[in-house]
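Work Package 3 committed the consortium to producing structural models of liganded targets before the mid-term review. Because experimental data for this complex are still outstanding, the team generated a predictive model from sequence and the ligand definition alone, so that downstream docking and mutagenesis planning could proceed in parallel. The input record is reproduced below exactly as it was submitted to the modelling pipeline, together with the SMILES string for 2-acetamido-2-deoxy-beta-D-glucopyranose.
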Amino acid sequence: MLTFLALASVVLLGIVPEQSQAIVIYTGWERHGLVGSEIRLSCSFFSWRWTSDDVTFSWTYRPDGSRDSISIFHYTNGAPYVDNKGPFRDRLEFVGNPSRRDGSILIKNLDFNDNGTFTCDAKNPPDIVGRPSSVRLLVFEQVPIQAGVITGAIIGVVLGLLVLIVVIYYLMRFLVARRVFSLSVSKHGKKKKEGSQQRQGPAPPADPSKVKAATSEKKKQESRKDKK
Ligand SMILES: *[C@@H]1O[C@H](CO)[C@@H](O)[C@H](O)[C@H]1NC(C)=O
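The resulting structure, written out as tokens with the ligand in place, is given here.
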């Protein structure tokens, strides 16, 4: 029993100090962006201690196919520093909130060649032992353009169909109204004609020549009726 307690305390003493000093850093795992757009690369950490005023974040970048990482950003002594060399010197903005353990950066105007691995390291003194975390960035050019074209085509087709349906609907209404009108005129003469004209309601403005034709037909039929 004593041996067990001794062992347990050794194990606990071994674990606890390590835990209480370790800092665990989180980034995403992979992010996708479009050429020309911007992307937020987030970085946060977990630490057993209160958030220190001396929190630091640092970001490095390793392009795909390269073995060397370059430093691109530091947050230290309460101020952000963008490295004045390298591919992101004009395109990087600090968008984190160190008091909330957030060391996120924004990469603007993404380039096709930005593919690579971004690594974030954070320290929350005296909690400084932790493993940096990495996020892979993939910048796409072609696929989103195709997707955009497809989306546009679908929207276009849907809109076209809607317009077609509306046009057909009004055309049918117009034709049906005309047909009822002329049928009633030819079969039942004046009285019914007036009724059907009222039913016709706000029909789309008719082509003046057609109106004339209809009127002349009306007159013809009226005169025929008069002759009888
Ligand atoms: C970046 O990654 C994407 C996705 O894998 C790929 O399509 C593209 O060709 C890559 N860009 C470069 C410059 O290699």
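Reviewers should note the following from the model. The longest helix spans residues 142-188. These observations will guide the Year 2 experiments.
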